[in-house]
Amino acid sequence: MTEMVLERSGAAFRTTARTARRESREGLKLPLGRPPLVAAVDLGASKVACFIMRPDGLRKSERILNAAGVGYVASRGVRGGNIVDMDEAAQAIGQAVEKAEAMAGVDVHGITVTTSLGQPVSHRAVVRIPIAGKPVTESDTSRAVAQALASLRLTRRQPVHLRPIAWTIDGRHVQDPTAMSGRTLGLDLLVVSVSEALWQTLSLCVERAHLHLEGVVASPYASALAALEEDEMELGSICIDMGGGSTSVAVFSGGALVHVDSLPVGGAHVTQDIARGLSTSIAGAERIKTVYGSAIASANEDREMIEAPPRGDDPGAGPVTAPRSLLKGIISPRVEETLELLRDRLRASGAMVDPGAGLVLIGGASLLTGVREVAVRVFDRPARLGRPRRLPHLADAAAGPTFCAAAGVLQRAAFGPREVLPRRAVNGRIAPPLDPSAGMVAKAAAWLRENL
Q1: What sign does the dihedral 93-95-100-102 (CA atoms) show?
Q2: Which of 22, 252, 323, 363 could form a disulfide bond with 233, CB atoms 3.0-4.6 angstroms apart?
Q3: Burial letters for 124-138: b for 16+ Cβ neighbours within 10 Å, e otherwise?
Q4: Are 18 and 97 in a shared domain?
């Protein structure tokens, strides 16, 4: 790629360590080919986390990964499932990457962002193309993908994942149709998309952080890759990512991703409910939720009293006092309503897998006491908390359900599948998405030129 010099935007970046190091060079060169390391950034409503994996951090024989650097900061500039302040969001991304760089002892040029912003959802397309009895070639599979994409109407949506659910040759299911002969080639394709506006805004945010956007991964998919066992993917599993600003889900069956959906409701909404119900501050409500919060009843909760700081800065105002049962009465309905809404949407989509399939809960809100029990009751199936499986050497602070998405990006980079759509580079600059008015055939052809 050609040399690219990123313009500085915002005084907050002028004094950072990364900016100082990079300004000492003649511009900023993007790495050629596959970068020598992988940097994953999880951009959420509550936190921004960065995991860095060096080439020597992969042991393929044991399928074990090692994160050479981990950094995370409180999220800023994100609200309601969208980026509302690009400078604030860019600064948070830059700070998280800097912390991970310092631990890993490397400089990061490009990042892959995983997020549930932009309401990731999935679409399915089934196509059959004639192959006239000849062996299937890459050209045939590309043509099937193009026709599947062309059959979808993704208005103001940007595809980020193309995942084949099933291939068929003359109606027979096959894992890989290449070189097989038949008269028709069939494809059941899952396309995961995000808001086109979010994609464009995210690109600018990453550029303002003096980084190159290498791709976007839907966080429910990335989290599922990190948290699910192979048996769970094969037999069927529902992975629910309970984040701060949204609750999203990835459904696996037969070893394939079959559905992705998201709701714009998360742990931050529980915090806001507590702040309103107890007339306390957001910070006070978050602390109370973490220390005393529960989605199920507990012993002596009517007699146990909790204190919350009052709103405002009146030094004479005393703390707000309330029974712990009131806190449970605020938390439980919101958690139950969110899970019921997600269950109903899965039923309506036909994505509810076999009743024997279990739930895997991840994300910060899943750590709230009683959430697992509520999920078991709502979905009527077993549930467990998920954690990153392939990174055994993570510190305890970064080894929980909150960090599955970043870990999943590293796992996808190491073991595949690599189907995420990279941004197009034009004269060394990140190009905008395809014209929304362009036809789906043109969009499919452009994607195939860039990725296959």
Answers
A1: positive
A2: 252
A3: bbebebebeeeebee
A4: yes
